[in-house]
Amino acid sequence: MTVLEDRIEMAHDRGELTLDVMFEWLEKMPIPEGTKVEIVGGNIFMSPQRHTHFRIIFDILEQLRPKYPLARLASDVRIDFPGYLNGFACDVAAMADRSVQDAKGRWRYQDVEFVAEVISKDTASNDYGYKKTAYAAAEVPVYLIADPYQRRCHLYTHPKNDDYTTETKIDFGDDVDLTGTVVGLTLTTDGFPRD
Questions:
Q1: CATH tag, 49-80+89-187
Q2: What is the rounded CA–CA span in Å between residue 195 and residue 193?
Q3: Is 29 helix (H, G, I), strand (E, B) or coil?
Q4: Which residues contact 173 (CB under 8 A, 6 or more apart)?
Q5: Strands 152-160 and 142-147
Q6: Residues in Cβ contact with 7 at an 8 Å cutoff, skipping those fewer than 6 apart
Q7: Distance CA 68, CA 14 (A)
Q8: Rounded distance, CA 152 to CA 47, Å?
Q9: For the chain, which residues score pLDDT lower than 50?
Q10: Which of 27, 127, 153, 175 could form a disulfide with 117 if both were Cys (CB 3.0 to 4.6 A apart)?
Q11: What is the spatial distance between Cα 149 and Cα 124, in angstroms, rounded to a whole number?
């Protein structure tokens, strides 16, 4: 076991383990620049951001700008979601017009209207599994996965009972029609790079 694992186990045994405690420990660690860090179900995940990843994120953010001002968009910013120790750093999150940050300067999951995750090989199971369940439990209306390995997007809408009732698969190059959702616009994917 590492020192961090020992501290986490001791804090957990004492009932003191919280997302704030875990992120405080992470802030003291020498994490390489450009590494995404998030806590999913109490597990810490660190993954370096590839250029393909960045380009898709940036493309999505740019396309959301007609509807969402920059002040209501986030990327790789901690948002705590329902479930056991879920401090996600969504690749893209868009907040509702009514949104305000809490006293700690964080967005509330209840205000998230749209989330996009770009798949990384090492954490793909989180995006397709655990995080999808947490986003549905949080009733995030629109969840988009961009998968450069499959060259496809997976669009999830209509959250109900900790799952999404609708899944649409869209090949890179085709449009993602969000006009019938709270987002109210169409995303193009023809500029998404492929791995």
A1: 3.90.1570.10
A2: 7
A3: coil
A4: 189, 190
A5: antiparallel
A6: 25
A7: 42
A8: 21
A9: 1-8, 10-14
A10: 127
A11: 10
Q: Is 56 exposed, middle or buried (0-12, 13-18, 19+ CB in 10 A)?
A: buried
CB 140 within 8 A of CB 158: no
pLDDT for 3: 44
94 strand-pairing partners: 73, 114
CA distance 10 to 32: 26
Q: How far apart are CA 148 and CA 29, in angstroms?
A: 30
The DSSP call for residue 67 is T
pLDDT in tens, 107-163: 999 999 999 999 988 889 889 999 999 999 999 999 999 999 999 999 999 999 999
Give the span between the Cα atoms of 128 and 105, in whole angstroms.
28
Q: Read off the amino acid at residue 174.
A: D
pTM: 0.85
Show me where the domains of the chain are located: 49-80+89-187
Name which of 96, 98, 78 is nearest 37 in CA terms. 78
Residues 11, 21: contact at Cβ < 8 Å?
yes
